[in-house]
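ENTRY TYPE: paired fold submission
RECORD: A
CONTENT: sequence, then structure tokens
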Amino acid sequence: MAKNSFSEGRGPSQRQLRVGELIRRTLSEVLLRDELHDPDITRLSLTVGEVRVTPDLSIATVFVLPLGGDKQEEAIALLARHKGELRRIIGRKAKLKHAPDLRFRIDTTFDQMDATRRMLSDERVQADVAKTDASDAEGNDTP
């Protein structure tokens, strides 16, 4: 069984990043051009935020988000229903010898960014930042 480079504290290889981005762009194009001919998927207007590929390139985890963030479970179910067809299309268009198995997940990046933004705008955090800035301006290195 292949080792997962993420669990060892290392990031993905250049090959994983390259293949993941190729799959992301290809899948985005397929969904944009409605090549699945499924009106339910077209209606959702999906964004493909990221694709993470395992080190052996056998599995690609696709992070998607429907426009407006609504109907997330429906989007995952629809994509999973078409995963065989999507895999064939991606393999053909991206010219991959072996197209990876596709796993679909909701992209939570935007939610995480919003939570971070809210945390940083909290008045207690702002007070700590101001105190640290004042200490740094006085030349005091201790927080």
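RECORD: B
CONTENT: sequence, then structure tokens
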Amino acid sequence: MIFGAHESVAGGLHRAIALAGEDRCEAVQIFTKVSGQWREPALSAEQIAAFRAARAAWAGAGRTLAHASYLINLCADDAAILERSREALFQELARCDALGIDFVVFHPGAPRSLGEEVGLDRIGESLSIVLSRAEGLRAQLCIENTAGQGSTLGDRVDQIAAMIDRAGPEGSRLGVCVDTQHAFAAGHDLRSEAGYERFWSDFGRLLGLERLRCMHMNDSKAGLGQRLDRHERIGDGEMGLAPFWRLANDARLARVPAVIELPPLSKERRGYMEEIARLRALEGAAEPVTLPGAAPGPPSRPPRGSPSRSPRRRAG
């Protein structure tokens, strides 16, 4: 896999690229605006040029992701919020296209009293509207799976497939971002070989593995199926190292950019370099303990389709 981190844009969007270099990232994710505000900033020609120049000079030269605003709800039961969400997602796409960012990751939304079917219809309609307006833009929208908290949709692979299908012809332009913590909290047990293969089998059958554009690599503070979005450092949470060992050694995912999403360890130390190093150390290693607190057992075979040795891969 191609590992990286979500980096701060304090001091300018281009600063995130410098931080990615310091952390030895081969992929980077940013916010292009304040994630908890509706205000849409207009980027100056200078800001765009600085970001593009920083990326061109970046030794990692990897994939770039932007996470859309957390306020976006493409199936809102309030008409004003729904319209505002559609506009915000389009504006995010336009900013990212100007910056040369590859993927725009977003949470689909929560229908609340409308229910699942109406919610899926609204998300499909919203995506069709946004993508029709975005004709010609190169940045690609990626639906992120969710933990399923409250009435949030997207915790099941079949729901994501329904969103894409209901977007009509525009659905062919959609990608998917898989967040490991969200999947685990939603009830997908990636710790066991059977659970891991079940998840990716469903993904391949309902979406097609080629639809996977990027991943978020996060351990979980929440237990399996608790439906809470609570990230933890790799190997320190309820998931343990086993799922990340499977991912790091899965040849099917060798070219997928995967970023960690964690707060810095302190004001002086981000800790992302250490997290990424921990992930890279899993490549080609023996399988770690499968379950947190379990006694070590003999290593099992690598995930299906994996090489016996998985060398570090550079982004291309």
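NOTES ON RECORD B: The chain has one domain: 2-281. The CA atoms of residues 73 and 205 lie 27 Å apart.
STATUS: closed
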